[in-house]
Write a structure and sequence with these properties.
It is a single chain. By secondary structure, the protein is an alpha/beta fold. It has a domain at about 10-75 and about 105-175 and about 275-350: FAD/NAD(P)-binding domain (3-Layer(bba) Sandwich). Helices cover about 35% and strands about 25% of the residues. The protein has 14 helices and 19 strands. The protein has helices spanning about 20-30, 55-65, 65-70, 95-100, 105-115, 165-170, 240-250, 255-260, 290-295, 305-320, 325-345, 350-355, 360-370, 370-385; strands spanning about 10-15, 35-40, 50, 80-85, 90-95, 100-105, 120-125, 130-135, 140-145, 150, 155, 175-185, 185-190, 200-205, 205-215, 215-225, 270-275, 285, 285-290. It is globular and about 65 Å long. The structure holds flavin-adenine dinucleotide. Flavin-adenine dinucleotide binds near residues 15 and 47.
Amino acid sequence: MNTSALSHLRILVSGAGVAGPALAYWLGVHGARTTVVELAPALRESGFTVDFRGPTHFSVLERMGVLDELRAVRTGGGAKIVVDEHDRERYRLPAEFCGGDLEVHRGDLSRVLYERSTDTTEYLFGETITALHQDSAGVRVEFESAPARTFDLVIGADGIHSGVRRLVFGQETNFVHHLGYYLAGWDLPNDEGFDTISRMYNTPGRLASVAADHRDAKRAGTMFAFTAPALSYGLRDIERQKSFVRTAFAGMRWHVPDLLATLEDAPELYFDSISKVTVPYLTEGRVALLGDSAWGVTLGGMGVGTGIVGGYVLAGELAAARGDHRTAFSAYERRMWRFAGRWQRAASPGRFLAPASASGLWLRDTLFRHSLMQRMLVSGSGSLAKDDGLPDYPAA
Ligand SMILES: Cc1cc2nc3c(=O)[nH]c(=O)nc-3n(C[C@H](O)[C@H](O)[C@H](O)COP(=O)(O)OP(=O)(O)OC[C@H]3O[C@@H](n4cnc5c(N)ncnc54)[C@H](O)[C@@H]3O)c2cc1C
């Protein structure tokens, strides 16, 4: 008989991004029967580079046994060169500032976490939750195509535009606050011979950047950011999203016309508003939010690390309480409010990437070209990721 702390629990996780697979892994360690539903038909391997900072992120990656695997796929990069319209270097942002202590491609991270969790997790791709009904005995869940099932707990790890949050907590506009910027990224053939060190070119309210993919020098990736009020579009309407990018960057010089020309054939586009999620509470009955659905800031710098720490804490508190979700959820809320709240308050990616006015751009460049200021910012971000006393949650 399986006597692990959570062997009596069936847990449904929505979202196979970063936080979802990390949580699934830890639930497996503690013996739960876990199912993950993911809207995309397969693991989403796109996205820019993401990074880990500070001792707490590393201690959880180490406990998961994925640190060496992630080090093996590290980009080794992270430095960025700010250029003028003739592609001449103006100044450099050092790797530790942009790439943290360990930088990897988001797709590599998602794959490593997914593979680490598959032994103990049922994954359903191309599936989503359409309704949730909870009572004292469990949560009855209806899916888009799979038959309805009952679970003990449901966790929404389905990103900034979380479906679980909408179904249980209320409509997205109550919780997701547009910060005035949009972000787009896509892959392209590296016909121009771009280097792996990213080059960034700005005009007020616009950033265009490009770098070679360190895994395959024949490919490159872009990251564009621009100011805009909230736009209306379908999350799956890629053509409309591409047209927003073309309009926002029309007339911009440097490599922009050539980069925009590659949008046509880009198979996948990452496009999202830069937004901040604020929820008044992380749990509601038998349902909890985790990762970007709970405390996300698009490109907030520490979203991946915080999502992984959150998965560790949520599974660990459930195990420590032998599956009593009331006790576990309140301990999870207390710890994660403190940890996630600290970096979320400091995150302001749009204003750094693409200051809206000429004077704002001048101020950013004046501040960031000084190495003293860069060092201060690096040490500040490491301390935001500290948590004095992340508990051990031994597997029973
Ligand atoms: C494609 C993609 C690219 C990204 N690129 C970057 C990047 O370059 N840099 C960066 O800092 N951050 C990026 N992010 C965000 C970053 O990955 C998150 O901050 C971090 O991973 C937190 O993890 P998460 O698991 O909470 O959310 P996410 O990583 O966003 O994962 C959420 C998952 O839930 C799935 N999902 C969404 N809605 C539903 C639904 N209704 N039902 C089932 N599944 C659903 C999504 O497809 C996704 O796989 C990206 C996110 C995505 C999805």
